Structure formats: structure tokens, C-alpha cells
Amino acid sequence: MVSAAAAVLALSGAGLVAYGLSQQDTATPPSPGTSGHHHGAAPPPASTTTRAAGRAGAAYVLPVGQQMARSQPTRVRIPSLGVSSDMIKLGLQPNKRMAVPQNGSQSGWFDQSRTPGELGPAIVAAHVTWHGKRGVFFNLGAMKEGQKVEVDRADGSTAIFQVEDIGQYPKAKFPTDKVYGSVDHAALRLITCGGVYDGDAGHHLDNVVVFAKLVGTKKA
User: Which residue stretches belong to region Disordered (predicted)?
Assistant: First the structure.
């Protein structure tokens, strides 16, 4: 079985419309408009403010904890899972679909989210399987609260995150505000697909999301 994680963005007159992250049964990401490429989760507006989930009139929340200057991530390591993966930059396709890594051994940072360590949520996605082999995030759902995720950055620093929550959600009920909404700290979201694989639909029915918070930094 070949699997891939992807995200879709959409705009309406009212603003960002949220969807759930998806998986495509193909060796390469589907081109824009390909049938079977299912909806993904929309990121928050590009803003450094911490208004709750971007809602109009929400009270300002004072940032807490450590924050780091912006620097592109280069590698993600999850010691408890034996994961050490190069990280590439993922942009948007013309149809507002988020690109996905072109193989199963790389993770991808969504470049319209915060860089890991900055105030707000940084979004990282990777494949579950690829050409019948395990992908980077094959065991993501096995993570436990308190475990660490380390992200190396281009400036030579490493952002150290601690897992606070792990969730599995039906695609139709993807928790967009919880994943992409504004927060008062430097956060990390690791996203992939999970649950039962629907062969007829060509994708897994759920998404797995790991929520983590910055708890430390170090220099190379």
C-alpha cells in the first residue's frame, strides 16, 4: 500500500475555510484537480498576534514561555520512534493544495506556518507509507505525552518540543482551530494519516496529529 499525506487550503468571502488533512494512494502527489485528492487543513492567517483562533474581537493573550527567532527547519528527530529525517519546505500549489514530500524518507515543513520555535504553531507533515514501505511518520500515533521532538534549524540551533497531546480524528471532523489556531506559545504540530484504509476511496479515514510545546533550545 502506498500512502501520502497532503493538505488543502481554500478561501471564501468570509475568510479561511477549514478542511481535514488527507492521504492519496499514489507514488507521487496528485496534480491539481486530480480526483481522489482529499481536503486538508487550513492554516491560520499570517499574523504574529495571539488572538484565540483568529476570531474577531478576541482578547489579546500574553505570550508565555520561550520563543525563537525565525529560522527554517532542516531536520526532525523523534528519539522515542527512532526517527531522524531531513525536512524540506512545502509550499502551496496553484489550486491552494499543500505540496507533500516526494518520497517517504523526508518530512516537510509548511512554509506558510511558523518556523519551529517561533510563537505560534509550526506545521510538519510526512508520509505514513511509500511504495509499500514505512514512511517517516508510520509510528506517529504511538507517541506518548512527555516524549520529545527535536527540530534542527538553519541557524545552527535546535528547538526541543515536548508532546502534550496526541489525537486521531475522522477527516470530516479535522480539528482545524486546535491544529492551526493561534496559541500563546511556540508550538509544533506533526500530522499524518491513520485509521482504517479505505481501498475504494484510496485513503485512510482518519488523521493523526501530535501537539507539542517548545521546552528548550540548544546550539550545535
Answer: 23-53
